[in-house]
Amino acid sequence: MSKVTYTDLQFVEGLKHNNDAVLRALYKKYYNLVLKYVVNNSGNSESAADIYQETLIVLYENVQKPNFELNCQLQTFIFSIAKRLWLKQLRKNGNTYRFKEDEEDEVVDVTEELTDHIKKESDIEKMNASLEELGEPCKTILKDFYVYKLSMDEISEKFGYTNSDNAKTQKYKCLQRLKRSFFED
Predict the structure, then answer these.
(1) Cα dihedral 121, 124, 129, 132 in deg (nearest 10)
(2) Which of 150, 173, 144, 122 is nearest to 69 (CA)?
(3) Distance between terminal CA atoms of the chain?
């Protein structure tokens, strides 16, 4: 029996339609990513399981929204949700956490990490807004290439370019416009 693998879009569609097989596969695929992050940041496997469960609920609720659009790789989206939930949990516990190191307790302040995380989220929101401002076909070309990992030949065929070099030139122009839009503030 061969193992079924799903693309990011198949995971999203499966969640939209409450497909149990997709949910089970999704749970298995990214659990270790969240487990490693939580355990490496003062948590334990029980905390990681709780955070992953909450992460999948947040993902599910987002996917059910009619205007939901995946703007990054699913793994990145899941990790971002899990990280936000875990940092929120740490903040709720007082912005510090403890871990054992040679029988001594050490308290670590996570305020700087929280600040970095908030800045990164702000940059992602700004990038998404800049991408929206670009309009079509730039928005779709860049997403197809960077998010959905389509080849230049596939993009060329999709948009009716005569060859992949023309598609590559258009992608370059779109990327330059996106950079100007993003960095103009």
Answers:
(1) -140
(2) 144
(3) 54
Residue pLDDT, tens place only, 64-90: 888 888 888 888 888 888 988 988 888
| pLDDT for the residue numbered 123 | 77
Predicted local confidence at residue 80, as pLDDT: 87
Tokens representing 14 are: 């499966």
Percentage, residues of the chain above pLDDT 70: 84
174: tokens are: 């779109």
- Residues 7, 45: Cα–Cα separation, whole Å: 27
CB-CB contact of 25 with 6 (8 Å)? yes
Q: Which two tokens stand for residue 1?
A: 């029996």
Distance CA 155, CA 48 (A): 39
SS3 134: helix
Structure tokens at 130: 């800049």
- pTM of the model as a whole: 0.52
The pLDDT value given to residue 168: 92
CA 134 vs. chain centroid, Å, equals 21
Report CA 83 to chain centroid distance, whole Å.
10
